[in-house]
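SAMPLE LOG
Freezer: B-3
Tube label: C17
Construct: single chain, 241 aa
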Amino acid sequence: MLRLEALSFVSRGTTILSGVTTVIPDHSLTCLVGPNGAGKTTLLRILSGELKATSGRLLLGETDTSLLPQGYMAHQVSIIPQVVQPPPYLSISELVQLGRFRPYGAIWRRLTRRDHVAVNASLARCQLEALSKRRVEELSGGEQQRAWLAFGLAQEKRFLLLDETLDGLDVLVKKSSFELLKEVANEGKGIVLTTHDLDLVTQFADQVIVLSSGRVVYEGPPNADWQNRVSPAGQARWHMA
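STRUCTURE (predicted):
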């Protein structure tokens, strides 16, 4: 699991996150929700190791990640950012294959049999086998999102972070993507997804973390009350948590 203890982040004098304490379990689909500017993307970047917290601790299991070797977290956590430009000329299959190249490792190595198995399994899970030879830049927005999801799954890391990766998809594709993420989480991976689709969060999430102004105002299962923390009618209650 990933554990955050009183974690804060300040940039250019502005507090983005303040005293965030929470747990990201393995075997779990955690949905991170809240208004724009709440600090969701910053939190994901800290979880991935891309940013360092100003104060507080991020632990992997019982180990303070600041004590781990440089680049260690890059082997444990993969992140798909909110906006990803499609790589020119690469096919879907080639994009997903790039997910098998490890950080700080050799770039021009040959794919092993295990690599090919992981790539093919990820393409199949995201229903991209028939499109695998198509160039990514030629795909629709929904197909591109599925390609990036396959890229993330092919990395086979312990945690997968998705920053609004499913937002903008049509209802049926988005629901099937939630179903897939839930299935993958049940198999052992810790998944964190930022999203604005509260109905699907209620239906599929194991855990919900609601951020407001850089603080956690709700943490727990998506029960009947949690949406009051995010809906316009419940906005006034956020700062009472």
